Amino acid sequence: MNNRKLLYVLLALGGLFLLSQLFNRKKERSFKSELVSLDTATVSRIVLHPQADGHHEIQLEKAGGRWFAQQGSLKVPVAPGALNGILNELVSIKVKSIATRSKDRWAEYEIGDSTGSRVEVFSGNKKLADFYSGKFGFNPQGNSMISYIRSAGEDEVYATDGFQSMTFNATFSSFRDKTLLEIEPEQVTGIRSDFQGLFHSLIKDSTKWTLDDRPGPDSASVANYLQNIQRLNGTAFLDSFSPSGAPSYGFEINTGGSSVNLKVYASPDSLKPFIIHSSANPDAFFHEDSTGAFNSLIGGWNDLLKKSIGK
Known about the structure:
The chain is of the alpha+beta class.
């Protein structure tokens, strides 16, 4: 009799164990540890509808080994490295927890069809991923950033560690080349300026600099100026601009066997009264104010000229 009772107890315990395992498997299946699973080497197209760009569609497509970005009728090459963040994030989205299963709470996480930033990923005509990226915030418990992601067609909102919400909420301009000038200061051999017909030439002669065939500014001053302009980027693209007159300022910067030409045009915009163009990025014009690239290029040059007065 005791053996029979023991057998019943063992059978009951075994049944409870099997039920618990079944429940746990179902529970695991209901919680996605990964929302996206893909090989970025196979990705050929990404379609974004970012909240930061008014949900206007951005097409990112790979052709001939290069990536191109298109919005409306404007299609441009993607700047080197500009797509790395998105590609890296696509393979690193790890679910931390479920924020909500209720569609009624989508607004709280800015993850609705009309509020979240939609991301679609393709390999040829095959869709590899389709999800919405919502708001992000700080997680004080984990001392980390937290983003909210929702798969298209599903109600669940997932919390993930990281900056995915910022990365996927990219504007069209963030994929474009903003380069105005990129030089190595020690390779510069001369600069020629034209300020509305007033010309100046700064030439390197051995270890010294001459300005208009006279002793120029000291080497330290020139080196400081070149360091300040060695990496210049534009701020705001101005795609509708077409020059109709002579520039107000012109620069030719020589670096041995090559040169870069920069031109500054007047703009009727009182807040951004200058338009800058560079031969290093011939398809782009940039709307600028008196700070940033304009001040580094023009203001610094004027300071050099003042230091040469009286020499």
